[in-house]
Every structure is written in C-alpha cells, then in structure tokens.
Amino acid sequence: MSHLDSHERDEQGRVEPRQSDKEVVDAVRKHEPAATKEVADELDMARQSADYRLRKLKEEKRVRSKMVGNSLVWMVRRSEASRTDTDPTDSRK
Fold first, then answer.
1. Torsion sign, CA atoms 49, 43, 65, 34
2. Four-CA torsion 22, 64, 61, 25, nearest 10 degrees
3. Which residues does the annotated region (Disordered) include (predicted)?
4. Cα 86 from Cα 2, distance rounded (Å)
5. How confident is the model at residue 78 (pLDDT cuts 50, 70, 90)?
6. In the β-sheet with 63-68, what is the strand arrangement from edge to edge?
7. Does residue 80 contact residue 62 with C-beta atoms inside 8 Å?
8. 23, 75 in Cβ contact below 8 A?
9. φ and ψ at 38, to 5 degrees?
10. 31/84 Cα distance (integer angstroms)
11. Under a CB-based contact definition with an 8 Å cutoff, are residues 7 and 16 in contact?
12. pTM of the predicted model, to two decimals?
C-alpha cells in the first residue's frame, strides 16, 4: 500500500491536500520571509509539496516570492494579509 492510499481523493482521483490554502498562507505569515523548508516543516509536509502549493498560491496572487542568495523566500501579499475570510472548501473549520 502506498502512502497516497490513505489520502482522500477528489472526483477526478487526485489526492486532496491535507492542509488548506489558508494554513499554507498562515505558515508563510508566521515565518515571513519564509523559506519553502520552513513552510514544509511547519505543516509537516514534504518540501516538494510545499513548493508546489506555494507556487500555486503565487499564481493566485496570494503570496509572492523573492530570491535571497540562492534561496527563494515567500511573503504574504498585502491583499491576502487583510483577508478575513476562510477557504470555503476547507472542511476542517
């Protein structure tokens, strides 16, 4: 049995993330400017998974990134910092 077998899957058979987008943004906010590894460690997820989620949030303009030396760091966008709503798809409220 693969470790993915224990994860929930959506209608298309894709693995549902255990962490909501809000939790990922909150982890960035906590460590801002946050390294990908810091976000991954905060949420107990693989660094590659954190990188994927952060890049998707960047596409959605919820976080931004900046190169510092050879590392990418993440910051919450100002528009996201003032949001008070939650992820409507997050069933863990």
1. negative
2. 0
3. 1-37
4. 31
5. confident
6. 34-35, 71-76, 63-68
7. yes
8. no
9. -65, -40
10. 19
11. yes
12. 0.71
Strand partners, 73: 35, 66
- The pLDDT tens digits for 23-53 are 999 999 999 999 999 999 999 999 999 999 9
In angstroms, what is the C-alpha Rg of the chain? 14
Amino acid at 91: S
Quote the CA–CA distance of 34 and 88 in Å, as a whole number.
25
Task: List the alpha helices (DSSP H) in the chain.
Answer: 21-31, 36-43, 47-59, 78-81
Q: What is the DSSP letter of 17?
A: P
Query: Taking a C-beta distance cutoff of 8 angstroms, is the pair 28, 42 a contact?
Result: no
